[in-house]
Design goal:
The chain has 705 residues and is α/β, with parallel strands linked by helices. The protein has 25 helices and 24 strands. Strands 1, 2, 3, 4, 5, 6, 7 and 8 form an eight-stranded mixed β-sheet that branches. The structure holds adenosine-5'-triphosphate. Residues 185, 188-189, 198, 200, 203-205, 208, 224, 226-232, 499, 502, 531-532, 638, 640, 668 line the site of adenosine-5'-triphosphate (ATP). One of its GO terms (cellular component) is cytosol.
Length: 705
């Protein structure tokens, strides 16, 4: 790898950049002229329609309106193109490679958007998603081949160059012989955090590129270590699919299931940055509410996790464990079949002195299995009435119709969905496995099994049935039953991603393999390289949850510090000092990540009043900004901060497996600095026999060299 200090080369690139910027400005000016002409044309057409409305017939009016609509659409397209060009003005491209095919060498510039210079009839910048752009991510200099719609195109790459261009000036320019230059990546990763998640188009790695461009897998499951870029890749994949299938896929066809609104907000600017509209997003609880049509109140996942942490109730854990086992789903399926077979007890029926045999009633009832129960009964009565009409040439009187309806209704074992669900636990002779949460609500662990039963017995209405691509983040926090519901609800393609090591609630979790068993036809891929944290932080986190396949990017920073205090008061005073130091630094975010909401509230109260940009996140929060963010590990999942402080990293506070996971999530949120504080004894996960002391930090380092 060489940094291009070669002045003539830099001058040539500067000249090229200025030329591209000039061409962008010329194209924008031309678009502006066209936009003015479109606006005038639309205005004229509207005036004509208005002035001539009395002389025009219906057909003429429709055609005039269509013509206006057409002009508006053309104008909109021109406006979108203008917006894109405007964005390119700041940074038109980030990469170049020289590609020789059929003896002809051409420099190819790659940017976030395509720039076709319409006036000169030339492609000046290729969209990073274009087939030819894959060469940039997949090859070093030398022979290379890419797949185009017309077939494979082979050639030779003779130069690879990376740029960082800002405000129309080249800030960084590096030539590289390796696939994507480490220096540029290092430079990107060393920066302070942004508002929200950023795009990574300039430094997508080869294995990441393969996942982004996989357009065949029906369900793609990405298991990746903390900070491996799963969320980034999933969003870039969505942008890629929108580009690749632009005729059949729009952002309205995509749905993201995300863990909470803070996370949804955090990732929401990536797609617009990539030139796509934001896509629909929903949380599991909202989805459940919609499927149950708001008829049942239930505790939230956050409440379930909090209860587990605060009560450490073994009986509750046993209930949760039971409901994530594969056997549970099988039993639920059997029960659904049993209920279906026994809920309608038909008898021969005499209506208007005509016989309706029991077998016929049963057959009609069975036929309409996917209707809600009431609808189904109505359908049975209506079909029987029609059959009587056809067979006996007799139309039922009003009273007879009523009699028929009542008789059909009586044949059904009348129970509510909730009673039927509760009956499941009696049926399997484990009634203790069903328990209501506070205020008569359903326990969260019962919500999706209940929905599953509803789907099996009567079907559900979903406003998302037309979704064409579903993205599920933090897959580890959903149970096999949730995946069974998702599998039945969404027949579309799916991208599912997460990390088994980051389950915030191991009693209610799934691993990639378990998800694959439920969804079938799924392709699992693994990402083992972590980009977020400095190598020191990454290796520290490995001591908490060791993964032999883990690989950290070689970016150095300060070693994490574990600090002991004599009292809680001293500890809080030290954390306040850390917040002060952060406020004076050039870092943008400090996450103070606690185990429970109560603990987070205490830390927040200690800091409140002194710091301007201070925020406490709760399950009701919708976003977080730059500054100091106090939250639980549960809420911090998927987020990242320049600096992280983990208060109360004591033996008492972090003991169980669940707490180990939370500690791991908390530490892996840190990009550049990590501090853990405690009083008494430190958690054995970071120092004692429970930490991965068998493989100490040096050994872990050695493993990765
Ligand atoms: N190829 C890349 N180039 C630059 N930055 C990258 C690249 N891949 C990942 N990153 C950065 O690494 C960080 C982690 O990415 P992301 O949040 O997508 O990972 P994740 O696997 O979803 O993490 P986690 O599971 O820990 O929440 C982000 O700052 C992202 O920008």
């Amino acid at each position: 790898m060489t940094t291009t200090n070669d002045q003539p080369q830099r001058d040539a690139e500067q000249y090229h950049l200025e030329n591209v910027l000039q061409r962008i400005s010329i194209n924008i000016a031309e678009l502006d002229e066209r936009l003015t002409a479109y606006a005038d044309d639309i205005q004229t057409q509207k005036e004509y329609l208005w002035n001539s409305r009395d002389e025009m017939d219906h057909i003429e009016k429709i055609s005039a309106r269509e013509s206006i609509q057409q002009a508006v659409m053309t104008g909109d397209n021109a406006l979108t193109r203008r917006h894109r060009l405007e964005k390119l003005k700041d940074s038109p491209y980030f990469g170049r490679f020289d590609f020789t095919r059929h003896g002809r060498q051409e420099p190819i510039y790659i940017g976030v958007h395509h720039f076709r210079d319409d006036m000169a009839g030339e492609n000046r910048v290729y969209d990073w998603r274009a087939p030819i752009a894959s060469l940039f991510y997949d090859y070093e200099t030398g022979p290379a081949v890419y797949e185009s719609p017309e077939g494979n195109v082979a050639g030779e790459i003779s130069l690879k160059r990376q740029f960082r261009i800002k405000g129309g000036a080249i800030e960084l320019m590096i030539d590289s012989a390796v696939h994507v230059v480490d220096d540029v990546l290092q430079d990107e990763l060393s920066r302070a955090s942004d508002e929200g998640m950023k795009n990574i188009v300039a430094t997508i790695q080869r294995d990441q590129n393969a996942i982004i461009r996989n357009d065949e897998a029906n369900a793609l499951i990405i298991q990746g270590v903390a900070g491996s870029g799963k969320t980034s890749i999933a969003l870039h994949r969505i942008a890629y699919l929108l580009y690749r299938f632009k005729d059949t896929l729009t952002s309205k066809d995509i749905l993201i299931i995300s863990p909470n609104r803070v996370f949804a907000n955090y990732i929401s600017n990536v797609l617009p940055e990539l030139g796509e509209e934001t896509v629909n997003e929903i949380g599991m609880e909202d989805l459940a509410n919609e499927l149950l049509e708001g008829t049942y109140r239930f505790e939230t996942f956050f409440e379930q996790t909090t209860a587990l942490l605060e009560k450490n109730d073994d009986v509750m854990k046993a209930r949760l464990r039971f409901k994530v086992s594969p056997a549970f789903l099988t039993q639920l399926d059997r029960y659904a079949a049993h209920v279906e077979a026994n809920r309608f007890v038909a008898e021969d029926l005499w209506i208007a002195r005509r016989l309706v045999p029991a077998w016929l009633l049963e057959e009609v009832f069975r036929k309409h299995r996917h209707l809600p129960t009431n609808e189904r009964l109505k359908q049975v009565s209506w079909e029987i009435e029609r059959k009587i009409g056809n067979q006996y040439n007799y139309d039922l009187e009003r009273e007879e119709r009523k009699e028929l309806k009542a008789a059909v209704k009586k044949m059904l074992q009348q129970t509510t969905l909730r009673e039927t669900y509760k009956g499941f636990y009696d049926w399997i002779e484990q009634p203790e496995m069903f328990k209501t949460a506070s205020r008569g609500r359903l326990e969260y662990a019962d919500v999706f099994p209940l929905i599953y039963l509803k789907i099996r017995l009567e079907g559900v209405q979903s406003s998302w049935r037309n979704v064409k691509h579903l993205l599920i983040d933090e897959m580890q926090d959903y149970t096999p039953v949730q995946y069974a519901v998702i599998g039945r609800l969404f027949s579309c393609k799916k991208t599912i991603l997460g990390d088994a090591y980051q389950s915030v609630n191991p009693y209610s979790a799934s691993k990639a393999e378990e998800i694959r068993q439920v969804l079938r036809q799924a392709l699992c891929v693994t990402l083992n390289k972590s980009y977020r944290s400095s190598i020191e932080i990454a290796h520290f986190a490995q001591r908490i949850a060791y993964n032999p396949d883990f690989e950290a990017i070689e970016r150095h920073g300060e070693p994490p510090s574990v600090e002991r205090y004599r009292s809680r008061k001293d500890e809080l005073a030290a954390i306040t000092d850390m917040a002060r130091v952060f406020s004076q630094s050039d870092h943008n975010t400090l996450g103070i990540v606690c185990k429970t909401q109560k603990q987070a509230r205490k830390v927040f109260d200690a800091l409140d009043g002194e710091f301007k940009r201070l925020q406490l996140l709760s399950e009701h929060s919708a976003a977080f900004g730059q500054g100091i963010v106090v939250c639980t590990a549960h809420m911090a999942k998927g987020l990242e901060f320049d600096r992280v402080v983990v208060p109360d990293a004591s033996e008492k506070n972090y003991t169980t497996d669940m707490e180990r996971n939370l500690l791991y999530v908390a530490c892996t949120r840190a990009m550049h600095r990590l501090t853990l504080t405690y009083i008494g004894q430190p958690s054995t996960f970071i120092t004692g026999e429970n930490a991965h002391s068998a493989v100490d930090a040096d050994q872990v380092n050695a493993l990765h060299q």
